[in-house]
Amino acid sequence: MANTITFIVCVIVTAFLLLSIALAGPHLLLPATAMIVTVWIGGLCIYVADGMLNSRDKIEKDWEAKHPD
């Protein structure tokens, strides 16, 4: 679920930044492009972290199933 929300938020923020480029003119092109790249890199980091946490939970469940105390 976090990945879906992250993707939707990245798209919305990118749309706002593209709209700001369109309304403010080309002098905003470089900063807005840098912000778009930053947003998508942050989304990728959240995607990777969520995948790692899900993998860890799966490994812990498998460990608990194999080693009941």
Topology pattern, helix = H, strand = E? HH
Largest β sheet strand count, sense and barrel closure: none
Estimate percent helicity: over 70%
Radius of gyration: 19 Å
Q: In terms of per-residue confidence, which ranges show pLDDT below 50 for 5 or more consecutive residues?
A: none
Number of helices: 2
Structural class: mainly alpha
Distance between the termini: 32 Å
Shape: rod-shaped
Fold and architecture overview:
There is one protein chain. This protein has 69 residues and is mainly alpha-helical. It has 2 helices and no strands. The protein has helices at residues 2-24, 29-66. Helix 1 runs antiparallel to helix 2. The chain is rod-shaped and about 65 Å long. The mean pLDDT is 92.
